[in-house]
């Protein structure tokens, strides 16, 4: 009964989604949520092959098709190539979730040129190239959803210059994509998570209490809470060029 429900009643029935960095955390939760809504899903990974394959199994258990693709978003050819591979393997592309990213935090004077190049390559260039490739292949009514950060709206302390710079660039990209692609019925939006309980930033980690205290609700969010907003944007027709905070009031 569950499989039939997923196939016939999902709001994304017949759609294909690509979630970059979809093997863990917010990306994994998003891939599974989109599958619950009826989409077939491709996820990319760099090192976490087993985790990505586990996401594939979870999607397939919902009656949807899934594939895991190794692709480094910091490599220009691989960033764009993942879109072509997903389209070929799943027969189209309707939803792109730009989730892959890296975070390098630390004092301004300690950030190396290699740090700058890597963060901008993954967080900015990779997102641009993946979005560009997706826009060229998306069917009418497509959706581009990018995962930003609450640090684009409020930087609560030192150490975030490079990360905030890279994610802030995605706000401009999102608004420009919305203008450029709107005539085709393709929307572009960006979601800004606050502190979120993942293996990279666990809610019981050494810095968690301070981060939770910066929110209005006094706690970390969950990957599923972010994924639910992404799923909404994947079906919304009259929301584009928007910044949506899922941050527990971090920016309030």
TrEMBL record:
Pfam families: adh_short_C2. Residues 15-244 form the Ketoreductase domain. InterPro entries: KR_dom, NAD(P)-bd_dom_sf, SDR_fam. The keyword NADP does not apply. Keywords: Oxidoreductase. The keyword Metal-binding does not apply. It comes from the Bacteria. Belongs to the short-chain dehydrogenases/reductases (SDR) family. This is SDR family oxidoreductase. It comes from Streptomyces gilvifuscus.
